[in-house]
Amino acid sequence: MYYCHSKGFAHRDLKPENLLLDANGTLKISDFGLSNLQQDVLLQTICGTPNYVAPEVLMERGYNGLSADIWSCGVVLYVMLAGRLPFEDRNMNILLGKIERGDYQMIRHISDPAKDLIARMLTVDPRKRISMEDVINHPWFQVDWNPRMLST
User: Fold this and answer.
1) Residues involved in catalysis
2) CA distances (Å), 5 to each of 1, 11, 95, 119, 152, in order?
3) Residue ranges covered by each domain of the chain
4) pLDDT grade for 146, boundaries at 50, 70 and 90
5) How many CB atoms lie within 10 A of CB 6?
6) Residues 55-103: pLDDT tens digits?
7) Contacting residues for 1 by C-beta, under 8 A, at least 6 apart
8) SS3 per-residue string spanning the chain
9) What angle, rounded to 10 degrees, do the helices at 65-82 and 112-121 form?
């Protein structure tokens, strides 16, 4: 996502179903059907998958697609670490209300840096939300993610 954002493109429908791994374990992002070039004007189209959409997208006042993508990445990270969605309800109005308020329960069994990153990505006010640059420089990402092969 950092690369896409560096070129000014907002995906606007980030969710696990649009994240693929190739044979080498490299993450690939798919389905750019809702993507848009983020220029100096706010985007207006309400789009995305409800459980992953940022609160500002729902409020119909315009939004920055890059910041909305960071929210969606925060939801994806939460799902990967918790095995469940942070915002869920069978009633769509209740679900959207939870998203607009940022009403979710933090995962208890994860590290403090992971909790901090999720909280910063799921900040309701997009002006206070962490930037993509700060996401990739966050302490949670400052580990050796290269898989180690065990000897047999």
Assistant:
1) 13
2) 6, 9, 28, 21, 42
3) 2-140
4) low
5) 11
6) 999 998 899 999 999 999 999 999 999 999 999 999 999 999 999 999 9
7) 11, 14, 29, 69, 73, 132
8) CHHHHHCCEECCCCCHHHEEECCCCCEEECCCCCCEECCCCCECCCCCCHHHCCHHHHCCCCECHHHHHHHHHHHHHHHHHHCCCCCCCCCHHHHHHHHHHCCCCCCCCCCHHHHHHHHHHCCCCCCCCCCHHHHHCCHHHCCCCCCCCCCC
9) 150
Six-digit token string for 15: 């969710």
CATH 3.30.1780.10 fits 2-140, yes or no: no
Residue with tokens 């180690």: 148
Give the CA-trace dihedral at 114, 13, 64, 129, to 10 degrees: -10
Task: Give CA–CA dist 68/38, Å, rounded.
Answer: 11
CA 147 to chain centre: 24
Structure tokens at 21: 């791994």
- pTM recorded for the entire structure: 0.90
